[in-house]
Amino acid sequence: MSKITRREFLKNTAGAAAATTVGVGSALWTPEAFAQAKWVPEKGAKLRVLRWKRFVQGDEDLWMANTKKFTEKTGIEVRVDNEGWEDVRPKAAVAANIGSGPDVIVGWFDDPHQYPDKLVDVSDVANYLGAKYGGWYDVCKKYGMKNGKWIAFPLGIIGNALVYRQSHIQAAGFDSIPKDTAGFLKLCQALKAKGTPSGFALGKAVGDGNNWGHWLLWSHGGKLVDEKGNVVVNSKETIAGLEYAKQLYDTFIPGTLSWQDPSNNKAFLDGQISLTANGISVYYAAKNSTDEKVKALAADIQHARFPIGPVGKPTELMQITQMFLFKYSKVPNAAKAYMAFMMEEEQYGPWMKASIGYTCQPLKAYEKNSVWTDDPKATPYRDSAALMLDHGHAGPLGYASAACLADYIVLDMIAAAASGSKTPQEAAAEAQKRAERYYKV
């Protein structure tokens, strides 16, 4: 077999994403091609991957099918451990501390910034993918990079939007979701009066709780830190947001203080609530259900962006998931080859479609994937990466921002004020003290 030169490799992998996918049978997936890409798999390499457990079956099915394809093309055996959302972060932290565990982690937010010195520089992979697929969104660069290097790169953004029953909204006297927070509160009050309440996670929900909670804080002009990383959460803007949270909580179904990420999915599909914040997984579950009663919900489900608060602009947080590689791995080149393979259009495009857009693209070329137009109900999720703020807003990402998110400081503050266990002033003051412990490090 003739060797592929670097010039030929770059020529073959340049251009529009749709025209330059790496074919399953392509000679590009040879040892020579890996050499040109600097990802020569170590002899006898085996990989272990830790990632979050699916909320839509198509995600996991295609992930495992793509992994099998990688093994068939490279001979590299890959073990994938699918863990609960709340379990990935502590397992990754343990691996970082003891220097042993999975080679590749598919984790959350800026967790890599908690142990950047223990991660392999993946700039070669990230730069290759960015050049080939239209570039990374700015928010993805902020999450993946530190000091000019990529310590991780986003696999995708699990879009978060309002999920609601159209017929129940109309029965409550509204044609659509109000565009402002004042109108949104009136809608939630009307839904409760009709016996079809809303419900938003206030427990330790990595995705749904953090996402809607930060929206609520930011929509009123509050923020955990300023641009320089000074903790400023104990402010009049935060107090206003917490007063609003208290009014909103009064319209919720009981039990939301203990909700984790699966809880609102179940409540919605059980018919207990008519409005929540979630990914497209609720719609996916209804659409593919074998229970005719649940399946009938799909036609009534709609999605909308969050309303605008007093701050006067969109203030949304989405669930960003990143791939990173620990230095303790004995097979870093094999790991890089796997990470790149899973992001190539031939694998990534069908994966997006199989999960009907549950994970939004981090690379701009994938905006054109037909998943966003095949079903108009997926369209509100398409621009998640372009729309979202990073959770460290307005300060830098790093150890402190990652630790504050992992410690649920913002979400705990909102839960305490909303439920009345603390006054808004007490909740904000406590959050200020908790955050200062991290930002002083």
From TrEMBL:
It comes from the Bacteria. GO terms for cellular component: periplasmic space. SUPFAM superfamilies: Periplasmic binding protein-like II (SSF53850). InterPro entries: Bact_solute-bd_prot1, SBP, TAT_signal, TAT_signal_bac_arc. Pfam families: SBP_bac_8. Coiled coil: none annotated. Gene3D superfamilies: Periplasmic binding protein-like II. It is found in: Periplasm. Its main location: periplasm. Keywords: Signal, Transport. Belongs to the bacterial solute-binding protein 1 family. This is Carbohydrate ABC transporter substrate-binding protein (CUT1 family).
